[in-house]
Design brief:
Order of helices and strands: EEEHEHEHHH
CATH architecture: 2-Layer Sandwich
Helix content: 40-55%
Strand content: 15-25%
Largest sheet: 5 strands, mixed
CATH class: Alpha Beta
Strand order of the largest sheet: 3-2-1-4-5
Oligomer: single chain
Amino acid sequence: MKILGIDPGYAILGYGIIEMKGNHYSVCSYGSLTTSASMDMPDRLKHLYTQLMEVIREHEPDEASIEELFFNTNVKTAILVGQARGVAILACANSGLEISEYTPLQIKQGLVGYGRAEKKQIQSMVKTILHLKEVPKPDDTADALAAAICHGHSVGFNNKLRNVR
């Protein structure tokens, strides 16, 4: 199964595509989609949508995992990130992907076993699980890969539960 992980943002949207075979993961692709601060917001959103659709067409993932919005004190930023997140969900839905959403706490718990893990711990686990030589950069790509791995763990766990019944 190919899983597309997305770390939403309007300046940088991280994505990562992994393949899961049993309990083994391998990385297919990862990167970031960026927009310029000089662009109007509608143009930024359109650019993110178009580029994400191209990633989906090129790699043909089976499912998507999107990080839920972590609300911080800056309401304006949260709204703008929420708009970019909506565009990412729309691109996945229009591509026929099943979409799962995970909070940052769930992703940390799924990778490290501790919901308050530091960013460096998450990055280290992404590197280890995917057998990478380096931590993916920028951070948004590592976060997207973490979301994909979290979903893989969740799917694998649910399959194990079904087999036990």
